[in-house]
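Crash report, auto-generated. Payload:
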Amino acid sequence: MADRAQPLSPWPGILAATGVAALILGTLVAVVLRAEAGTGLGASDWAALRFTLVQASLSALFSVGLAVPVARALARRRFPGRRVLIALLGAPFILPVIVAILGLLEVFGRAGWVSQGLGLFGLEPIRIYGLHGVVLAHVFFNLPLATRLILQGWQEIPAERFRLAAQLNIEGASMFRLLELPMLRQVVPGVLAVVFAICLTSFAVALTLGGGPRATTIELAIYQAFRFDFDLGRAALLSAVQLILTGTAAFLALKVSLGEGFGGGLDRQVRRWDGRGSRVLDAVWILLAGAFLLLPLAAIVLSGVPGLLELPPVVVRAALTSVGVALVSTLILLLLALPMAAAVALGRAGAVEMSGILGLAASPLVIGTGLFIVIFPIADPFDFALPVTAVVNAVMALPFALRILVPRARAVVARYGRLGLSLDMGGWSFVRWVLLPRMRPQIGFAAGLGAALSMGDLGVIALFADPELATLPLQIYRLMGAYRMEAAAGAALLLLALSMGLFWLLDRGGRWHAEA
Amino acid sequence: MKHLAFAAGLLSATAAFAETRELTVYTYDSFVSDWGPGPAVEKAFEEVCGCDLKLVGAGDGAALLARVKLEGARSDADIVLGLDTNLTAAAAETGLFAPSGVRADYALPVSWEDPLFVPYDWGYFAFVHNADAAAPGDFKALAASDKKIVIQDPRSSTPGLGLLLWVKAAYGEDAPAIWEGLADNVVTVTKGWSEAYGMFLEGEADMVLSYTTSPAYHLIAEEDSSKAAAPFAEGHYMQVEVAGKLAATDQPELADQFLSFMVSDAFQSIIPTTNWMYPAVTPAAGLPEGFETLVTPEKSLLLPAADAAAVRDAALDEWLTALSR
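Recovered output after restart:
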């Protein structure tokens, strides 16, 4: 198959994938080489592994299971505020962990809004801490992302299919079986794998919402190995376990992800004529999901407003630094993700996709330490704090970008590849005149998500921190560490606004001529 | 093999001052932050040393030690500032630190004999609560009460480790029973101090593990006297924060000058209202107004550095067992 004539070369993508794999595995190897003989995995590590698997599987199942009806409702309905709601869906995901935890607890905590509401009726406050709390928090983070990715699956179905379905009077269950289920079988496994991988590396959220050391995850065990035991070997071993688990999940997802796609359409706007009977049900799903996601965000906004007016200039400077890092990171992300998506579309799925998802599984602590070990002998790692942060953020966002770009790239290559070949378009012409224009909305979405993620991520900057060049998330942590919770809340609101702004600009930029 | 750093340096103004002596101090991140002691300390020392003081932040105390171990003797650092007595045994074991030679009239409640490390501030761990609510007077009363507390994980947080050793120092072999009694009081365990303190301020718990000096922040910076620390009859475990000189420093005299400066008034008077800890040597002007309102424990607990390192792992296992049920 690889020998078949192709409209463009898969090699840039394979090269990018190799570079990403080299970064992630190379840093791991660097840590292993630096390690003295340490202890292997102990009983507590196995307990951490078990808990991690259980919480990540449940979180992925619930996030994606709930995202399907929400995405279906959003795909079928048009209502005022729909675009804003879809844009806000990106928000929970990009918040720094500590901010999101405090926002969630303001709503669902012992003294939170829900418990206070229950108290008005003489009811007991809800008990949030436990496995259910961990899953709830992870659903809060990942339901929006899963919804966006699955919603995009709906948007990939050409408008002509819905038109035909309407003419044939296909609705409800038949519509689901003929159009929606095949799409879901293609999209859902990949989304499950991504959410699973995100939850696998959870640490602060799992510990805090889990209510104590019962909720010890592998990432916490890595942290302990590093800073409590200084056992680099065990840290690397645990990190390898994380990579293997994520790799397995990604492999399974690729195996079970079935279907040939829907072929191309004329890129018309989708109109729907079906689903009149389920209007109420759709409304309920949208309202429930909206309330669940927006209430904690509202809590964050409310606590942030008082602090916003008195933000010190250093915070504003940090915000500018963060925007700069985010833009560079987004550029790197696209330079990696676009060739990789093209390579996948050209039939080089396996290894390229696997390499793309590893970024999620790699422990930031291990990557950061590995990079440190690599850079230290040749230069001062502090001089590279911002570039390293930009690169690592790009690699971490890569799995999302690929999930967004790959389906569309596949469809474009399948539909126009032969036409391009028969017209003897060179690879570059194909990219410029066929591929990029048709992928514009997806590129915009991927860029927006990448930029927002980079804005919110504390990432490796904490390991390389330079007092002169702090990012906004780092300043938020510093404000909190100096008791200045109100200013920190204000800075968090600024971060939320900037991330959403970047996301919105890039996402809209991709689809200014189409509907969201 | 410094050409990359050199190339980067050419772009920055520091190259122009290549003649100036430079002292590099590795410390924890909150020290260098704009709200920590870092900026004022840098200004004060540069006024007297005719040098460039470069403060470099690296995570927290434990991450700092990991960093120094990673870099070994090739480290650019001359001074490491921000270890505490739970880390000094491991730090001394690396053989990377040189004797300080500093002597001072310390205001510590314990005597200080360490030849390598110089203390610069200290504090007592304590449970902080709202002043209008009654607080239990010891761990047993806390365990018997229905007070909800939020604490930090000893594996990822310095105060969390402090609490672990506090219970161990106060109760020894009975520590597991204390933890079992406390288990139903613990709302949750957080990764770091900030999460826990933020949760307490939001009303998620009645008490939070912090320092006896925490109410001073609210009192002095916010003019808010609504927070108090609960005095415990068992005594309070201490944290003593120290700095040490690296043996491989290329600026030994400047490093010595910094350590002496560190226990002088100029440095010590910055500490109380930036690091919110007690200064290791009381400045001539005394403590800032408001510190006199803080609770003074009747008994100070502190395991010697070697013992702290020895009991740490067993104490962690007891903690994990009691709280994982």
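Post-recovery validation: The two ends of chain B are 54 Å apart (CA to CA).
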